Amino acid sequence: MKSNELDEFEVDITRCMHCGACVGSCPVNAICLNEVVLEFNDDCNMCKRCIKVCPVGAIKLAGER
Amino acid sequence: MPEYDIVVVGAGPAGSMTAKWAAKSGARVLMIEKRQEIGSPVRCGEGISRSWLDSVGIKLDAKSVAWQVKGAKIVAPNGKSFYLSEKMAGNEVGLVLDRVFFDKLLAKDAVKAGSDLMLKTSAVGLIKKDGKVSGVKIKSFGETKDIKCGCVVGADGYESQVGRWAGINTSLAPRDITSCFQYRLTNIDQEYDYCEFILGSKAPGGYIWMFPKDKDTANVGLGIQLTKLKDPAEVKKYLDKYIQGDPRLRKGRPLEMVSGAVSICAPIDRTVADGILLVGDAARQIDPITGGGISNSCRAAKVAGEVLGKATKERNFSERSLQRYEKGWRDLLEDHLYRNWMAKEKLVTLSDDTFNKIIVTLNEVGVEKVSSYALLKAIEKKHPELVKEFQEFL
């Protein structure tokens, strides 16, 4: 599953609180929070913990509603 | 010779206290903060106790304290409650802070002690020479710079990067993560003399808190254990649902929203490496039952600053030298953190019915002092079956 995960997630910037809950919970340190921009790198193993831990539901799989 | 002995990454309470005590002990310290303002945005329920402040040299000013309470009110799932005076309530009760001012107060103390401070400045990586940390790469107001130093302190919070860069394992199991959401709600009715904690399945594996900020305003939030979450955005939904169901809060409106995650883990294996030291949330020093981190962070940070002062005089920032911090903070906190982690592992399994019985029992038998041990002992007297899960504590 190590293809281009950069495109696998969508961050809803109208929900994101920039709190870092996803960053600190990521088991492989694949998420970077640059002040207000969330970036995923290709260390991501698609465990989707970030989707679950986000208190406001700002992260989703690309293409999902 | 490098410009600084120590670079502290993050200007929250842990960072500022480390910087203060290191600078006081003669180290040349730079503290960097990625945000444009210290203390903002707030990511905290803001409830603390008073008891530890003197021991770390914090003198609160009027602005840092939003409200003072007489104690804690613990509420069972069925709505029955148990009151604790401040003296008995332990770690997270007594004062409700205004972190916007409190964090600035601690940063001012660090600066007064001689620490340098830069805002809008993030650490982006460690600089290593011959395999040893020799500084930190920073991005400051658009410019990338290398800062040479003897030791980099990771006070960079829940989302800490410094430890991970240094190869220190700070990763968390899902059961050791709590996802949190909070409103500062105004126009509410509340017992403003008490910090309220609501237990049970309204916040699975966590609790709902209500910490008064003034007579009709409170920080109302909840934390839920990650393993108990299923759908996205559930944490906010749980809180919205609770507020709608509580007639005191239904007409409240939010002045502020806060989200975040909190570690509720057992103490991690190590918090130092050659030229690296972790403190506060970055070192996973949060109390696994209450989710409170300020007192533990500040107590560990004082030890860190003093050890870093000695290490500076000796020009020795090796892992061996920094072990004095590892030992020092563990002497203060490790037993308590470990016991509370064990207790948390049990508490998250209790049913609403059991919580209801526990609150009834506490009202019947009373408690003189609140610690996990004293509470369990009190319950055991009356209902040993309620605490059979906790035998190893008794």
Verbal overview:
The complex is a heterodimer of chains A (65) and B (394). With 65 residues, chain A is α+β, with helices and mostly antiparallel strands. Helix content of chain A is 15%, strand content 22%. Chain A has 2 helices and 4 strands. Chain A has helices at 21-25, 49-53; strands at 9-11, 31-34, 37-40, 59-61. In chain A, a hairpin with a 2-residue loop joins strand 2 and strand 3 (37-40). In chain A, 34% of the residues are buried. Chain B has 3 domains: 6-46 and 99-171 and 266-343, FAD/NAD(P)-binding domain (3-Layer(bba) Sandwich), CATH 3.50.50; 65-94 and 173-263, D-Amino Acid Oxidase, Chain A, domain 2 (2-Layer Sandwich), CATH 3.30.9.10; 350-393, no CATH class. Chain B is α/β, with parallel strands linked by helices and 394 residues long. Chain A binds chain B through residues 15, 17-21, 23-25, 27, 29, 33-35, 49, 51-57, 59-60, and chain B through 34-35, 41, 43, 122, 157-161, 164, 171-172, 174, 177, 179-181, 226, 229-230, 232-236, 257-261, 263.
Question: What brief labels describe this structure?
Answer:
heterodimer; A: 65 residues; Alpha-Beta Plaits; 2 helices; B: 394 residues; alpha/beta; D-Amino Acid Oxidase, Chain A, domain 2; seven-stranded mixed sheet; six-stranded mixed sheet; 9 helices; 27% strand
Short description:
The complex is a heterodimer of chains A (65) and B (394). Chain A is an alpha+beta fold and 65 residues long.
